[in-house]
Design brief:
This protein is an alpha/beta fold. 38% of the residues lie in helices and 32% in strands. The protein has four helices and five strands.
Length: 130
């Protein structure tokens, strides 16, 4: 089982919608996902939006871990199977951000995945942003 957390966003005229997804992926057998949507005042720069996506994912992950610890369901194996998916990749404007974003996530103790492996953010969360 892999635990995947990813956030994507869409900017409209007056606000930016962020969707954070928690996917429980039973590799080879499908999975389930849960999501939450947050709206903030319009964010115009791509860099600021991507950093906000990462922060939403990290805050959500920390809350998830705290909740699991309170219920005594947390295990160190969970961290080995937990991935933070980020909607950035080698193509496009976000390629300059890869090292700093992946480094930031790694320094927080998690595994980061970028495109094309970051389907939690770039596919699932992206579809729910509309």
């Amino acid at each position: 089982v892999k635990i995947i957390i990813g956030t994507d966003s869409k900017t409209r005229r007056t606000d930016t919608a962020f969707v954070t997804v928690l996917a429980v992926h039973r590799v080879g057998k499908g999975g389930r996902f849960f999501w939450q949507k947050n709206r903030v005042k319009n964010i115009n720069t791509l860099r600021h939006r991507v950093w906000q996506e990462v922060n939403f994912s990290l805050v959500f992950t920390q809350k998830l871990i705290e909740g699991l610890k309170r219920k005594h369901w947390f295990s160190p194996e969970l961290l080995r199977n937990l991935e933070i998916h980020v909607d950035i990749g080698q193509q496009g404007e976000t390629k300059e951000m890869i090292r700093e974003i992946v480094g930031y996530i790694t320094q927080n103790g998690f595994t980061a995945k970028i495109k094309p492996e970051s389907f939690g953010a770039s596919v699932v969360a992206d579809r729910l942003c509309d």
